[in-house]
């Protein structure tokens, strides 16, 4: 476990001393591994030095072996702290550490006799070499570990000068162990990132709930009261009450979803000019904030959320629904066209519902209304007569995206439009925005 200092926001530490840092414990799956690696390198160095002392007289050139052991000890004395954390363990240090191990293995050919090497005598760095490989595994994952252990394997085979069974056994053991540890480290890092993201979402959700409670206890209740009193008084007060009711619905949607309008679009309640009627809420276009083929991905929820109003109910998943920017803009324009049809054909008092679903391979947006419905064959007749609102504004957009648009309508029971867009699709040769029906 690694401790991190967190300074509270203004007012968050009231009663506990302002400006004083709070101690928070932050999980780190790597820290125990780095500590274990440091201990392994120190202990194996001690083992190698003891092994050298007992085998000193058996070396063909003991002074060469002694010089390497001295250099290795000095290297460890100056670098042992490098393996205590990921920040200190740089790529340059790992390369130097591995070079010390590989050089010691090759130097065994000079320091030791051919007979002892053939009999399977330990190399000069012996098991200390595994520490250099494990450093690559913890720092860079299983791919770095595979490369480092492969280099160790080649140098060991060169030193032994034959495919001896014990040498192959040791090489395979180091390779499998380092790759396995590297893979475990990668999985642990991914899990730690997922946990951190979940904790951030949980904290944001709690803050949103706190704000929602405060707003519900103040602003929303005042707006509701203005709506009721305005309707009771009548006249200009009734119009004021109607607008207050619309802003109450818009504010409830904003608080519950946590979404804000895209840049360039007016937020409900932002000012007198930003007050929208139900008809304007149905028809308002929601373009992407960026243009061009290189624009980044867009959250479809952010494009569709501003449609919510007194006559439009917006329902969305809890997480982002991401599409390429151009595809998200085309889908939003198709939804706007569908809402245009609700406004024109179902009437100003019709209620509409927008439902966003994030499927594994596609995004599905359903627009439903409680209007009179569409008589059978009406869409085909309209297309033959040259009224191409549905054919171009909706079905044509979805076709360019590789998706589809389906209508389900029962006379007297409303209409439902299901828009499907496969993920990763970008419309070619189209400009953002709505086409006129």
TrEMBL record:
Source superkingdom: Bacteria
UniProt domain Histidine kinase/HSP90-like ATPase: residue ranges: 326-425
Keyword Ribosomal protein: no
Keywords for this protein: Kinase, Membrane, Transferase, Transmembrane, Transmembrane helix, Two-component regulatory system
Entry's Gene Ontology cellular component terms: membrane
Gene3D superfamilies assigned to the protein according to its UniProt record, in alphabetical order: Histidine kinase-like ATPase, C-terminal domain
Transmembrane region(s): 33-54, 60-80, 92-111, 131-155, 167-185
Pfam families with a match to the protein in the record: DUF5931, HATPase_c, HisKA_3
InterPro entries per UniProt: DUF5931 (IPR045975), HATPase_C_sf (IPR036890), HATPase_dom (IPR003594), Sensor_HK_TwoCompSys (IPR050482), Sig_transdc_His_kin_sub3_dim/P (IPR011712)
GO MF annotation, one: protein dimerization activity
The keyword ATP-binding belongs to this UniProt entry's keyword annotation: no
UniProt cross-references to NCBIfam families, sorted A to Z: HK_morpho_MacS (NF047322)
Name the record gives this protein: Histidine kinase
Organism: Streptomyces paromomycinus
């Amino acid at each position: 476990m690694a401790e991190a200092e967190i300074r509270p926001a203004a007012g968050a530490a009231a009663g506990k001393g302002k400006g004083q840092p709070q101690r928070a414990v932050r999980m780190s799956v790597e820290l125990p591994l780095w500590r274990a690696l440091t201990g392994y390198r120190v202990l194996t160095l001690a083992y190698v030095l003891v092994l050298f002392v007992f085998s000193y007289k058996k070396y063909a050139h003991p002074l060469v072996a002694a010089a390497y052991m001295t250099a290795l000890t000095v290297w460890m004395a100056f670098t042992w702290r490098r393996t205590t954390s990921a920040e200190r363990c740089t790529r340059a240090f790992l390369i130097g550490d591995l070079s010390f191990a590989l050089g010691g293995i090759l130097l065994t050919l000079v320091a030791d006799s051919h007979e002892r090497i053939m009999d399977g005598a330990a190399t000069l760095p012996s098991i200390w070499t595994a520490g250099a490989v494990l450093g690559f595994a913890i720092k860079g994952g299983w791919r770095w570990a595979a490369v480092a252990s492969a280099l160790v394997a080649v140098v060991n085979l060169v030193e032994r000068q034959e495919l001896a069974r014990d040498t192959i056994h040791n090489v395979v053991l180091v390779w499998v162990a380092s790759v396995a540890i590297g893979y475990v480290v990668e999985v642990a890092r991914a899990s730690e990132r997922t946990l951190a993201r979940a904790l951030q979402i949980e904290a944001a959700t709690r803050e949103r709930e706190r704000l929602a409670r405060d707003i519900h206890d103040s602003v929303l209740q005042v707006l509701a009261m203005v709506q009721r009193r305005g309707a009771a008084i009548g006249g200009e007060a009734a119009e004021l009450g109607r607008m207050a009711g619309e802003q109450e619905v818009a504010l409830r949607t904003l608080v519950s979803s946590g979404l804000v309008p895209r840049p360039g679009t007016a937020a409900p309640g932002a000012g007198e000019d930003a007050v929208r009627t139900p008809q304007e809420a149905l028809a308002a276009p929601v373009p992407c904030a960026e243009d061009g083929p290189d624009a980044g991905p867009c959250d479809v929820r952010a494009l569709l959320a501003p449609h919510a109003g007194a006559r439009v109910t917006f329902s969305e998943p809890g997480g982002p629904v991401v599409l390429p920017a151009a595809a998200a803009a085309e889908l939003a324009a198709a939804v706007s066209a569908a809402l245009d049809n609700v406004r024109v054909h179902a009437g100003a008092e019709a209620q509409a519902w927008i439902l966003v679903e994030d499927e594994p391979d596609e995004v599905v947006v359903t627009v439903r209304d409680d209007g009179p419905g569409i008589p059978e064959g009406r869409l085909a007749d309209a297309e033959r007569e040259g009224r191409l609102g549905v054919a171009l504004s909706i079905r044509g957009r979805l076709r360019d995206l590789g998706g589809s648009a389906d209508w389900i309508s029962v006379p007297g029971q409303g209409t439902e439009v299901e828009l499907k867009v496969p993920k990763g699709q970008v419309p070619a040769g189209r400009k953002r925005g709505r086409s006129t029906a």
